[in-house]
Amino acid sequence: MGKSVYFLEAVFRLINMTEAKEVVADSNGEENVKKEESLDEETSELESSIIRQVEYYFGDLNLPRDKFLREQVQLDEGWVPLDILTRFNRLAKLTKDTEIIAKALNKATNGLLEMSEDNKKVRRSPDVPIPEMNEERRKELSNRTIYAKGFPKEATLDDLLKHFKNYDQVENIIMRKFQERSSKKRMFKGSVFITFKTREQAEKFMEGKPHEYQDTELIILWQDDYIAQKQEEYANKKEQKDKRNKDKDNHVEKEELKLPTGTVLHFSGGTDQMKREDIKEALSTIGADVAYIDFKVGDKEGWVRLTKEDTAKGIAEKMTDNKMKIAEADVEFKVLEGEEETTYLQKTVEEMTKRRKNMKNFKSNKGRKGGNKYHGKKRRHDNEDGGNAKKIRSSDS
């Protein structure tokens, strides 16, 4: 329901059923049982869940980012019909009966919600302004948020909500999920972010370590420490990957760009109209296997590099006085040897390496620009009503 944010607030109400009291009295020995308190005056488990869920919808973090609910709030001085709220998934799973919802919300005590006189509408109290979501606010939220890992992958949000009712002032739980490659389904990673009402409550939770869930000890960290840890891991992984790629590139270059010797013919004496195709065609008539012709139209000289090692001399010997008729001109050829050949081949390798790097960078930049199908999109995290949360990284737990 809401836009992507780093946290989404869900107010937990820890309202417990009051046990009926039984009192033994009377001096004459007769037992007198005090009448049980009316259940109508108590808050049932269902009503507690309804209050918590609706307070989440109108809470500090969800309301500013929930486009649909914001639109509804603006229609009637903040009032939203209860039948509109029953379209919200998690509330609908609890009940769609607006009378039950109204009865529950009238028992809310923290002052966030206000019911209309006819019990048909609810709104966030005008006396409770929405905090501005700025950098200071984000830091304040992060300062009272904890990372916990070790939950079973099949656990549901309701399981987690029930478990954390045992702790004071838990405001919000975000289940961290990833998309499973083969099924494309979003799967729970077994870790969550838990936001407490105050820093003090979060510290109390941290001091109570170790914490367990179904006999499994949880890994507990401050969210800021977890993020710093992950950032360091990412940096190390990137550094190692870059080093591997660099070593691989250097190895490939050394292996692939070792050009065979005894393969270079220098030529001169062509016409201004002579083309590389003319040169290749002429040489092929005497059995030359040409790898590359370093020449462009209008040049006075050029070089032919053959494919197989030590074949240049054999091709030159098939010419008449080291000359061939190409494009109406007598073109003279000479075999490069020794330092002259070495210098030319080194220059050729440098140029080939530069071209390959440029091509690799071009493909890499092109891939980053359009190759990511999630480019510009946000990833969902399950929280109170399927709202979104800021992406950490799908591959990390």
Descriptive notes:
- The chain is of the alpha+beta class and 397 residues long.
- Among the domains are: 39-124, Winged helix-like DNA-binding domain superfamily/Winged helix DNA-binding domain (Arc Repressor Mutant, subunit A); 138-234, Alpha-Beta Plaits, CATH 3.30.70.330; 264-336, RRM (RNA recognition motif) domain (Alpha-Beta Plaits, 2-Layer Sandwich).
- It has helices at residues 45-57, 67-73, 82-85, 89-94, 98-105, 135-142, 157-164, 199-207, 223-256, 276-284, 312-317, 338-370, and strands spanning 80-81, 113-115, 121-124, 145-149, 170-179, 186-196, 212-213, 216-217, 219-222, 264-268, 290-294, 301-306, 323-326, 329-335.
- It holds the Pfam family RRM_3.
- Its main location: nucleus.
List strands and helices in order, with pairings.
Elements: H1 45-57, H2 67-73, E1 80-81, H3 82-85, H4 89-94, H5 98-105, E2 113-115, E3 121-124, H6 135-142, E4 145-149, H7 157-164, E5 170-179, E6 186-196, H8 199-207, E7 212-213, E8 216-217, E9 219-222, H9 223-256, E10 264-268, H10 276-284, E11 290-294, E12 301-306, H11 312-317, E13 323-326, E14 329-335, H12 338-370
The main pleated sheet reads as: 5 strands, antiparallel
> Structural class of the secondary elements?
alpha+beta
Cα gyration radius (Å): 38 Å
CATH superfamily of the domain at 138-234: RRM (RNA recognition motif) domain
How far is the first residue's CA from the last residue's CA?
A: 25 Å
Number of strands: 14
- Identify the CATH architecture of the domain at 138-234: 2-Layer Sandwich
Could you tell me the CATH topology label of the domain at 138-234: Alpha-Beta Plaits
Helical residue percent?
Answer: 25-40%
Characterize the overall form.
Answer: elongated
Average of the residue pLDDT scores: 80
Order of helices and strands: HHEHHHEEHEHEEHEEEHEHEEHEEH
Largest sheet, spatial ordering of strands: 11-12-10-14-13
Work out the helix count: 12
Assign the CATH class of the domain at 138-234.
Alpha Beta
Uncertain runs? 1-40, 371-382, 386-397
